[in-house]
Amino acid sequence: AVVSLAGLAFMAQGSAPGRGRYGKEINRAVSYVLNQARDSGYIFAAGSTSHGPMYGHGFATLFLAEVYGMWPTQEVRTKLAKAVRLIVDTQNDEGGWRYQPERKDADISVTICQVMALRAARNAGLDVGNDTIDRCTEYGKRWQNADGGFASMLRVGESAFARTAAGVVALYSAGIYEGDEITRGGGFLGTR
Predict the structure, then answer these.
(1) What does the buried/exposed string (b/e) look like for 86-115 if buried means 16 or more CB atoms within 10 Å of the residue's CB?
(2) 153-165 burial, b if ≥16 CB within 10 A, otherwise e?
(3) Which of 11, 27, 63, 90 is deepest in the core (most CB within 10 A)?
(4) pLDDT of res. 192
């Protein structure tokens, strides 16, 4: 996750794989992330400890999607496609994701990582089915509390600023740019 986020930061500065001030660092980050990709598509650093490795998988997939948009190599595409497939295959019945690549419960923070990764992959030209996006969008809308803020899980927890910002980003990443959920979420954020 950290390597992927650093790579994204270098790219946000204006560098690209092999180009710009941080081009070499981006290449090293790409190499590292690709080397962590399992045959199953799961991107996870061996020997690392985390109670929520799907965060890292989501950030790594997001990073590879952004890289692929700038540097469309076959190796990046192959591993990115497998990473996206793992996200799609581990979406739970309600439409979200949780800490492990399993179809069990879900929360907003892990789900937003997967939704952002799927949006970036779709933007880079990979196929992400509408049904996956529609299910996580409907699930995300149900996270919203009466005050416009978002809870961490369905009907569990008080609204919080960071969760609400993540909820609004999840909806934006899923292509929802206006509507009641966006207005109420923005209102909650504006009052803090």
Answers:
(1) bbbebbbebbbbbbebeeeebbbbbbbbbb
(2) bbeebebbeebbb
(3) 63
(4) 64
